[in-house]
Prior knowledge:
Blueprint: E1 3-6, E2 12-20, E3 26-35, E4 47-52, E5 57-60, H1 62-67, E6 80-81, H2 93-104, E7 110-118, E8 124-137, E9 143-154, H3 166-173, E10 180-185, E11 191-194, H4 219-229, E12 234-241, E13 247-258, E14 264-271, H5 275-284
Antiparallel strand pairs: 1-2, 2-3, 4-5, 4-9, 5-6, 7-8, 8-9, 10-11, 10-14, 12-13, 13-14
Amino acid sequence: RGVSRAMVDGRTVVQTEAVVMNDGHVHGVQLWAGPRAVPPAERPKPGAVAWNITTGTASDTPQALANSGLDLAVEQTDGRPFAADLPIGHINRDETQVLALTMSCKPGDTYCSTWDTTSHDGERIRVSFVARARVEPQADGTDHLVCRAMNWRLPDREEPVPDGDLARHILRDMAQEGIHRALVDLRSWHLLKWLDPPFPHFDWRGETEGQPLVHPDDHSVLRTMKQQFAEGPAEGLLRLRAKGGGWTVVHSTIYRVHLLDDNYAGLICLRLPTPAELLRKSQAV
Length: 285
């Protein structure tokens, strides 16, 4: 809880506000000190965010979602894929660093940055955040690597920073209608970021509880794709978790792409299969 205390001199007041996560952890404390007769200025309202690196899931307080420009009417606060916390579209260097850290993060690692991005309603916004990773024991006795963060809004720049990143322009210009590209962690296959609007038939948010991402009978297809991937791009037809339950057949092609240092991600391209591909899938099943 926040507190307000008068100092010994009787003229100064100190006020604090705690930044609390959904699970009760205090991520930080805001402090203001000033004359008793002067009301505090309007404060930025930090939100709390937790990325469980072990499980590949994120949690955000409603304030954190609002600070990030997300729509509170459609966003859940817990059990979120990492991709739900990152802006959809081309990737900037700061996002690349964050994704690389999810693959090489160690206890004690810290990160801070300010991003220029766009809210769900098209408004240009600036968001600052700080984060620190630590090992946290869980109720089942296991230890998870968790990155806890705070974010808050800053005034927008008067003029946007020019975008001179050639790689981002190439990635944007290679977009194709009907193909939905995303970045995934090659070790865990956690979905990290959508580069195009999300594939509409795929329950990537995990709204259907207890249903795996890939149909259990398609693990042999995944094994074949992993063997192909050792020598180059891999492709295959997979039954993925569908919105509203059940399964949807998706044609998947995946490429290895370099992020930073020794960190590589998978660039996966999803599309609906052709009738001929569906026929081959039904014959194989």
